[in-house]
């Protein structure tokens, strides 16, 4: 994992946010709307440009999980996302 793919909170990395959004077909605008965060915040997080507060990560995680995304923690082969069964 490089500096841009750093873990941002509870095993959620920028790539997981991007992948989770892609799994459900959401744009950054849609995630911003559903999470109550500015689009620029989403873009910075996905780009690994910021170290967000836990409340910001909670908002993103809650929005994506409510839409059916499940975050998979690091298990030796990398962290990931999947759709809830």
Automatic annotation (TrEMBL):
Any matching Pfam family: HTH_3
Residues of the HTH cro/C1-type domain = 17-71
Q: Quote the Gene3D superfamilies the UniProt record gives.
A: lambda repressor-like DNA-binding domains
As recorded in UniProt, coiled-coil segments are none
Q: Which InterPro entries does the protein's record reference?
A: Cro/C1-type_HTH, Lambda_DNA-bd_dom_sf
What is this protein called in UniProt? Transcriptional regulator
